Amino acid sequence: MTSTSEPTATTGPFESVDDVVAALAEQGYIADRRLATTVFLLTRLEKPLLLEGPAGVGKTELAKMLAVATGRRFLRLQCYEGQDETKALYEWDYGKQLLYTQILREKIGQVVEDAPDIPTAVDRIGAQDSVFFSERFLAPRPLLEAIRSEEPVVLLIDEVDRADEALEAVLLETLGEFQISVPEVGTFAAKNAPYVILTSNNTRDLAAALKRRCLHLFLDYPTAERELDIVRSKDTGLPEAAARELVEVVRGLRELELRKAPSISETIDWARTLAVLGIDDLNSQILSDTVSVVVKYDKDVTKALNALPGLVDPNATIDDAHGHGHGHGHGHGHGHDGDHAHDAPTNGRSAGPAPVHDDEDGPDGRAVRAAKDEPGRHAGVYGAPGRDNQEAARTGSDKNPTNPRKVSSSQGNRSFGLGKKRAL
After folding, report:
1. What angle is formed at CA 322 by the lines to CA 367 and CA 307, rounded to 5 degrees?
2. Which of 36, 56, 109, 397 is most buried per CB count within 10 Å?
3. pLDDT tens for residues 301-323?
4. CB of 253 within 8 A of CB of 311?
């Protein structure tokens, strides 16, 4: 049966903001005071909370820990591109409807057997619509399930920015009034207003109407001290000094222009990785060997490897012998003893200082090109100037190359098939 009761007002599970901080900390979630204040208002005002910010800063985890801390049931709607209302609100169980219709075929026949005409039979069947379009055949999805739930719930609408804008319009009624209208049945209103948390990674701008219905908080990467507290709370096994240094390294990596910055969960994974390896003192070598735990793209790995020595030890000097392959005294096999070859190219052109040859890299390309840039270099090509001179030198012939050899008409006919006709 359709429920139309208004959501009941509650005092909330938390007495104060400090109570929120303590309750979440018991579940291993370290919240700063600004976040705890917003959560406190969520429970008192019973308004949805929209959390925006980069991936991996604890938006989804907050909803999970809030459910545990308040003892509420946890429901999650994972948004994705192309999602429609049937995957978010409800769906009709047509298979079940068809099964019931087959079973009740006999009874339906009895209802219309004495009908004098077709309109009367249709009216009698229409009077039974409520039997086949009822909650019995309604398959609730997360939104409707949160509204119909007899027990209080925490509803997470995760990555709402990935869904199409049409889904935002569907959410407006649910978020504004905690109710859902089903045309075939009626309107369902929540008996216990759910705690609703929406998350967004800012892949697109959300509609103003959606934001207007929500409390809002931009959740960024934490401070160094708070991130260290988070690492401590997860019992990674990494010593205190190493954990503190690791947090600073991760913060340094986030300042690079990476395609994906390391998240808090990846910092925890890195700390556990180093603890498993038995590392007590961080160095650039061990961090380079394990950097793929927090950096997931090839170009990002290259940037991270170049930056790690400076992040571990800001006073460290980076050996450039194997990095750039240029400069004096770094593997070229020459010095400043006056043995540089600055010969002019053979074609007489001025090409600037002569290039330095590196035995490992082969001959210099500019010198090779200059050597080829000489008159008559194409003499071996058919029809090119100088070919006759080259042929005369090869055969020892002294005939004048400027007089072309005469070709008779018969030779021309034979060459182009214009001589003796072949029989067909």
Report:
1. 125
2. 36
3. 999 999 999 998 876 554 443 34
4. yes
